[in-house]
Amino acid sequence: MQELELRLAGGRVLHAYDTGPTGRDDELVVVWHGGTPNTGLPPEPLLAHDPGLRLLGADRPGYGGSSRVPEADVADVVPDVLAVADALGVDRFAVLGHSGGGSRALACAALAADRVTAAIAVSSPAPPDLGGFDRFAGMAPGIVREQRAVAAGRAALLEELRTGEWDPSAFTPADEQALEGTWGWFGPVVAAATAQGLDAEADDLLAAGRAWGFDLAAVRRPVLVAHGADDRMVPASHGVRLAEAVPGARLHLVEGAGHISVLEDAPALLAWLRAQR
């Protein structure tokens, strides 16, 4: 894993990752967008499924080694992704986002369509201004409480993050099994993202809780919306509604899967990305 530190306009630091060129003619370059809270470290479990996969990633503002930008919007991830791709000499790439990273993957598909081949949003919430469904139906009570704190503003959210207890019902038994196995990879990544406090996590949640800074209808690249049918962190209704709002998007519901365990379907997700090249 190569790690690089980019100096952007105004002296801002962007910490990025690259699993490195594969040397294969069929190399597939994918930019990973992790959830909330995560650093940008690309997931090792994905690499096991595709020897021609090259993964890039970057810490979003305030996480890991990247400078904090408290008022960054979801769409602000796009110039950071392009800065990383340019620094590595990568012209075209796919994007794959999980949970809070799903919106960032869609932002790239909308605002960098000349560089993005395809996008997958996994376990992604729908934007707050997208109506037509009950956002909280099927959501674990602790996650509802967190989302209501997001709507109430930074002070309320930070108080909830500091004092609220984790709701174990947010993870299904399948999620727990995935976390005990291959996707236990998430543990150190979440710990690294919160090592400097809760401000970056709050920034991330607040960005997702206001207008995303781009129009879903502007997405013109192939999009797959993948969701676990039993997800209790971000109920599957979010994925259904998101797929309806993105032109031409394909919905991929995984029966029996939750918020994390849906990633066990990685071979199918990566195969779909390859088919869009």
TrEMBL record:
Q: Which keywords fit this entry according to its UniProt record?
A: Hydrolase
Please state every residue range assigned to the domain named AB hydrolase-1: 28-265
> InterPro entries recorded for this chain?
AB_hydrolase, AB_hydrolase_1, AB_hydrolase_fold
Which SUPFAM superfamilies does its entry note? alpha/beta-Hydrolases
State the Gene Ontology terms under molecular function.
hydrolase activity
Any idea what this protein is called?
Answer: Alpha/beta fold hydrolase
